[in-house]
Specification:
Blueprint: H1 10-22, H2 27-34, H3 38-47, H4 56-86
Helix pairs in contact: 2-3
Amino acid sequence: MADTRRRYDEEFKRRAVRLSYSSERTIAETAESLGIHRSLLTRWRREYTPSGEVTQLRGEQEVNQRLRMRIAELEEENDILKKASAGWQVTPG
């Protein structure tokens, strides 16, 4: 049986990070109490500030992801235009 990945919404991640910074417990103890793996909470701490705001790193990752998606769209459009123009070549006359 395949394991399904759980997805956590932004608010859960922000609250988990705030809790991990405000609690006297270790990251491992906080993660266990939330039912998540320690490495996941550690990753979220790199993405969010102690107050739950998005860090510069996370913001740049989001921009990069949007740019990669736009590049893929433009490459696909370019390929379509190349194929379409191949049938419309003008002969000198």
